[in-house]
Design goal:
Layout: E1 2-7, E2 13-18, H1 39-52, H2 106-126
Antiparallel strand pairs: 1-2
Length: 134
């Protein structure tokens, strides 16, 4: 991961980590404030970062062996998003018990009942067999 810092023409500064593909941004980047394309600035920052890093090339005749009893290092958690976050608020899906989504689940059953009833009436009408309700 390479940290990329960009300053937009509107004055906004934003930063993110990216894993470049062929030394370039894998997708487009936009300023979180004004929406201006910052992909070319990000590509320049990546090329400068890659030029500053020394290339690691194993010496000829050197063999790499895996250690059998090496302690494993847990992966570090990702602290920043690969792209700037949207300024829009996130809508809660209500997955926790008693959440906002729980109170609307009964509407699925009501809608299913209405659809099944309507389909039954439509089938009876198409087959010219109207049935009377008791």
């Amino acid at each position: 991961m390479i940290p990329v810092k960009i300053q937009c023409g509107c004055g906004q500064r934003y930063t993110f980590d990216v894993e470049p593909i062929n030394g370039r941004m894998p997708s487009a980047v936009a300023c979180p404030v004004c929406g201006t394309d910052g992909t070319s600035a990000a590509n320049e920052a990546i090329s400068q970062s890659l030029a500053a890093q020394p290339a690691v090339v194993p010496a000829p005749g050197m063999r790499l062996h895996t250690a059998t009893a090496a302690p494993s290092i847990p992966p570090s958690p990702v602290t920043s998003a690969p792209f700037p976050r949207s300024p829009l608020p996130r809508v809660s899906q209500g997955s926790e018990a008693g959440g906002e989504g729980e109170k609307w689940k009964w509407w699925y059953f009501v809608l299913a009942g209405i659809c099944i009833g309507g389909y039954s009436i439509w089938q009876a009408y198409n087959q010219h067999r109207p049935t009377l309700l008791p």
